[in-house]
Structure prediction request, 311 residues.
Amino acid sequence: MEERLEYRIFTYSAYLLNKFGKKVFRIGLSTGKPCPHRIENGGCIFCNPNTFTGEYQSQNFSIKEQYTNAIPRVKKACGDVQLLAYFQDETSTYGDIEFLKQKFDEALSHPEVIGLVVSTRPDYINAEVVKLLASYEVPVTIEIGMQSIHNKSLELLNRGHTFEQVEESIRICGEAGLTVGVHLILGIPNETFSEMLQTIKWISSNKYISQVKFHNLVVYKNTKLAQMKNIPIYPIEEHIKTLGKLIPYLRGNIAVSRLFTSNIRRTQIAVDEYKGNKTQWINSLRKYLYENNLNQGNKTDMKYDFRKYYK
Ligand code: SF4
Prediction:
């Protein structure tokens, strides 16, 4: 049988295809507001805003202008796809509720947009925002920057929130019927494999979480991380093996929407431990999973069964 990564990991593309019945592409958007945690508290130690503002998005453009820039390029590259409005930039629930409503309404008013995805911090999720998001009649996903269940790691990263706040934000979003995804960082300094495993086991046991995004900790220039005395090195090879070992503990129906920090900006890297490219990394992970017979969910109560998605 063909050795495809999708046969070992429940990928986000399989999830989207199954949910919408057609190819779907996320259009990255910005509300135009910067992250309050960076402005008010200095931000996370790994954060360099020059590295995560996507190619298509801009804080200076209206939603309409952002669509005008992005949609023709997406259609040219991907063909006839359906679209999700993806507020990915900074902390996308920051701002008063009227401001947010106006942004989300405008994004959803596009005739080809069939859903909304909003990425944010746990401490910027509250009952008012959740009520607004739950009021839309299209599928809405909230992506929460969780990073780890360990408060010592959140403190070290200067995340400015606790694990208890993460837990509460997931609960209120899940209870309101939003689809919940979480972002995780692997390779946090002083975090052991067994601590990362505890985070994965917690995610698998949480009934509200249905998507996860993995990031490998990247050391960018102009960050507090890059100024640390002993800069923590988390090479890509180690990340691939760590991921491979963690995947069996991830519940089989949690869609994996990212495996690596996306679009690493080479010009911004302080410590270059990321030889190769994403295609090569995915290939290495695929090989590692097949050679070691590792499947998502094998060590949980719910195994991933690719045959549901790939006949
Ligand atoms: S929450 Fe996100 S945008 Fe804000 S400082 Fe941390 S990494 Fe940067």
